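JOB MANIFEST
job_type = single_chain_structure
chain_count = 1
residues = 94
[input]
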Amino acid sequence: MSGMFRQFLLFWRAANAQCKSHSKMASMRRDHALEPGEQVGHRVHLVMCRGCRRYSEQMNQVSSLMQPAPGDSAKVPNAMPPDVRERLKAKLGS
């Protein structure tokens, strides 16, 4: 199967998939890039489907809220005191 035809099939399946598939695509997109055909099909579906578009926007908002603010990582104290860390290492044999 040629590369262009494969991308067209991915686009066609993605554009015509049901909303359940698009919610999975919106989540998968966070973990790894979609194939070019899937990306285009997903975007076409989002243009046509208000519910999926809202879901995708909500996923973007949650993702951006989960990111640490610039400079905050230096202010976060070490979660485990050094003496506790050393005792744990000794118990685990590390």
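[summary]
The radius of gyration is 21 Å.
The chain has a mean pLDDT of 80.
exit_status = 0
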